[in-house]
Design a protein that fits this description.
17 helices, disordered N terminus
């Protein structure tokens, strides 16, 4: 494509140069399409002109043919195309992408220290050289908030449990440890994390910096990870103390007792105040939980919503667009007196999947024209595919066809109807969710009253969202996920509140990227951002909703960017955050383009 564009530009430049010379020199021949006509004309001059034009076109055609047939290597695709030359990617260039494949950068600087001393040396040297080393975790943030071409530092090799206080139920870890690894290592002490993310590969250092509703990457705590339960605060509230390696002040330790103002700012610091090297977390007793999954509808949800929030430790709703189905999932500690529930599921997993498999085989016939008993000859056996894998394959056939998406959504509703029942397991086994493959997602957080007096704004938000989807014929797949948390005291958290009893709702909309075809992914991306823009225009201001830091996308339009900056400044202590950045990272070596766009300094403005 790039070579085609270059060739096209060259041809246009040649013609433009030709016409300009014609205007300057009347005797210079002007290109005239009629010269190729068979109409007789002056024999000598016209014949000569046609001959030279023919030679010119032959040379241009030969050059273009040579250019297009020249063997560009695959790894030269991101280099500037030049005639008769290609430049393969250097061996020292690292490709880093986020989990969803929506953001990717290439950098020569990707550092992985093995100790805090090595990390301190890296930060110190980078600060002296004014060379960027943006902290990046497992790359699970949909918006690639930790990525930059200038350079990155990753703590995957700093992944040890440093100490466990069984009595206080606290654990101190290096920030590169992954959630699943941490959970496995502290099992023997009878403790575990209070909440978990859908994906357990996140590093603790990323999860702390993003503030998410479920436990994720320490870059995620630092961007505001959240949990699932109106009684439970977001993940950042589990952080008791942190050790930050800063460019200007070296390694500092902060906590509620030691520099509380900076602690509450840095606990959701988006990786801009220092590299989180160590974290002390408040854990809870490891418990067996009973998960109850059942299908409901909006009418019954409205009737029982307050009860669901107040009586369940963990609760979430999964809405299925273009249907009235709402999947309710609750989790509570198993009663030692009652023991596990005696109810047996009505359907087996195979029976629950059968309707989805049938639709898959039917769709294969429709879209590909042939099918065998087990699927297309080049497809794996459908009995080997999980529900989310089947859904991805179904959507990939026609992802932006509303009628096709509705069929897939109805099949999902039927799957959940036949999956109703109970599941018993340890909290680290139960509190997770298979969220599917590559995807675009936008998640907002907004106030929902208090636990004793919910405002019901959370359900009003969903009703307006569903009406918008149907009115605008959005090919919206399932699920639209809704969770709740208590408030956070971290000042940069979307769930920040000074009132202890406030609760917040988190709502995520989604579009899957079930194909690696670049054109199709681009079309899905355009449709998703149209979908997101409509929800923003109709819902966000009305409900005081703000996007999750790991899912916010920086607008390209200057006016939209200015509006976003102004909106963020009303909600968050941007001036205090920028002042802390100025003191701790004056050369902005931990920053990237996203942070600079979201939080421009007063000098830059």
């Amino acid at each position: 494509m790039l070579r085609s564009f270059t060739s096209k530009r060259s041809l246009q430049s040649l013609l433009h140069h030709h016409h300009r010379r014609c205007r300057q020199n009347p005797q210079f021949p002007i290109f005239n399409p009629r010269l190729f006509s068979s109409t007789p004309g002056p024999p000598s001059s016209d014949a000569e002109l046609r001959k030279y034009i023919g030679y010119t076109l032959l040379v241009l055609g030969s050059a273009a043919a040579t250019y297009y047939s020249f063997p560009f290597s695959e790894n030269a695709r991101d280099k500037k195309a030049q005639l008769f030359r290609y430049a393969p990617l250097p061996d020292d260039l690292h490709t880093v992408s986020n989990w969803s494949g929506t953001h990717e950068v290439r950098t020569r600087t990707f550092l992985q220290p093995e100790s805090i001393e090595e990390l301190e040396g890296i930060v110190k040297e980078a600060n002296v050289r004014k060379h960027k080393i943006r902290p990046v975790g497992s790359g699970l943030s949909p918006n690639g908030i930790g990525l930059t071409r200038a350079g990155m530092v990753n703590l995957a090799l700093m992944d040890k449990v440093l100490s466990v206080d069984k009595e206080k139920k606290r654990v101190t870890v290096q920030a590169g440890i992954r959630v699943q690894q941490l959970v496995d290592e502290i099992k023997e002490f009878g403790i575990t994390l209070q909440n978990f993310a859908s994906i357990r590969e996140q590093q603790i250092g990323g999860i702390v910096q993003k503030v998410v509703s479920s436990f994720g990457d320490m870059m995620s705590v630092l961007v505001g990870a959240h949990g699932t339960g109106a009684r439970l605060p977001p993940i950042d509230e589990q952080v008791i103390s942190m050790k930050l390696v800063t460019p200007a002040k070296g390694t500092i330790e902060i906590s509620k007792e030691k520099d509380p103002e900076l602690f509450y700012l840095a606990r959701c610091g988006l990786g801009g105040l220092g590299v989180v090297a160590e974290v002390t977390l408040q854990c809870v007793e490891r418990q067996e939980l009973v998960e109850h999954t059942f299908l409901s509808n909006m009418k019954d949800i409205k009737k029982n919503h307050k009860k669901f929030l107040s009586e369940n430790k963990h609760v979430k709703y999964l809405y299925i667009p273009y249907t009235d189905a709402v999947v309710v999932v609750t989790c509570n500690p198993m009663s030692k007196r009652k023991g596990p529930p005696k109810n047996k599921p009505k359907y087996t997993t195979e029976e629950a999947l059968q309707h989805v498999r049938d639709l898959y085989l039917e769709s294969l016939t429709k879209y590909r024209g042939q099918v065998t008993d087990s699927g297309s000859p080049d497809e794996p056996e459908i009995v080997e595919l999980s529900f989310t894998e089947l859904r991805d394959k179904l959507l990939a056939m026609d992802p932006l066809n509303k009628e096709h998406v509705i069929k897939v959504n109805k099949a999902e509703a039927e799957y959940w109807r036949k999956s109703e029942g109970y599941r018993v397991g340890w909290s680290d086994e139960i509190l997770g969710f298979d969220c599917g493959g590559h995807q675009w997602v936008s998640e907002t957080c907004f106030p929902a009253g208090t636990l004793s007096k919910p405002s019901m704004k959370d359900l009003e938000y969903i009703e307006e969202l569903m009406q918008l989807i149907e009115k605008e014929s959005v090919p919206a797949p399932a699920p639209i996920e809704q969770r709740w948390t208590a408030c956070s005291k971290s000042r940069m958290s979307p769930a920040y509140s000074s009132a202890d009893d406030d609760i917040f709702s988190w709502v995520g909309i989604i579009m899957y990227l079930p194909t690696m075809d670049a054109r199709q992914r681009r079309q899905i991306t355009e449709e998703f951002f149209h979908y997101r823009h409509m929800t923003q225009a109709q819902l966000w201001d009305h409900y005081s909703a703000f996007e999750h830091w790991a899912k916010i996308e920086v607008p390209k339009d200057k006016e939209e960017l200015a509006a976003l900056q102004a909106r963020l400044k009303k909600k968050f202590p941007v001036d205090a955050y920028n002042q802390a950045r100025k003191e701790l990272d004056p050369n902005r070596i931990l920053s990237n383009n996203m942070l600079e766009k979201l939080f421009p300094s007063s000098e830059a403005v």
